[in-house]
């Protein structure tokens, strides 16, 4: 039985705690004797989450059991971290078999010196702070989670569930992880390298309704003619005016937005279907498999076929 110890502190993000805990608990219910889940706060006192919930820990740090998986959640409480938490992590983190952070919990691991020399991620809103204040950490703001040896860091809230499912699959097997995912009604298919942002989230939502409608239309029709001229006509603007207004209101050129939408759609089809690369390239508006290959290599560092081999899960019967 492996102990999963969750660190609690005031203003912790409740979902950063409960999401992974539900995954590990689900695995324990599916295969009893696998995980023992415990929580600990600096003095053993209840903590109040950022959403107002109160969590009662099992232990104070002083009597917390040794952890195979030491899980550090994020939340508003990481902005001005409790020095007792940082000091305890500095001492006990190296003893854990596996260090895991969710969201801005990476800031606590970094403050304890546990991320130096390692690649890590966090919630997109704190990655700049993480990189600036801890230059010894190789911060990658894009993936939803990163594994680097015994260290595992994840982005915001729900990505902690994705990471926990990946850890359960590693510890036990895919059948258990799939069973837990089905029970929680979440995907088991999100690989760690999946970007935190969809194209729609990466760009700002335009203020003017015609531009918002164009954004939505691009998302729903990635295989269509998405030239500036065609999109401008849909917005009832001149191409020059449209391109300037789109970038001003979304922070992204029309071409860049179209590229991200097409790449995102192609990735989903590679992960979720058995469609051929040529068929997918047409469906996503690339025109030719070579154009799609160039986009994948430029952005993801892997050709479509290689991407599918790496990140499409095996079929489970």
Automatic annotation (TrEMBL):
* One Pfam family, short name: HTH_18
Question: What keywords does the record list, in alphabetical order?
Answer: Transcription, Transcription regulation
Q: Which domain of life is it from?
A: Bacteria
Q: Does the keyword Glycosyltransferase apply?
A: no
Per UniProt, residues of the HTH araC/xylS-type domain are 212-310
The yes or no answer to whether the keyword S-adenosyl-L-methionine is present is no
UniProt cross-references to InterPro entries, sorted A to Z: Class_I_gatase-like (IPR029062), DJ-1/PfpI (IPR002818), Homeodomain-like_sf (IPR009057), HTH_AraC (IPR018060), INH-QAR (IPR052158)
Q: Which PANTHER family match?
A: ARAC-FAMILY TRANSCRIPTIONAL REGULATOR (PTHR43130), HTH-TYPE TRANSCRIPTIONAL REGULATOR RV1931C (PTHR43130:SF3)
> What is the protein name for this chain?
GlxA family transcriptional regulator
Q: Which organism is it from?
A: Streptomyces cylindrosporus
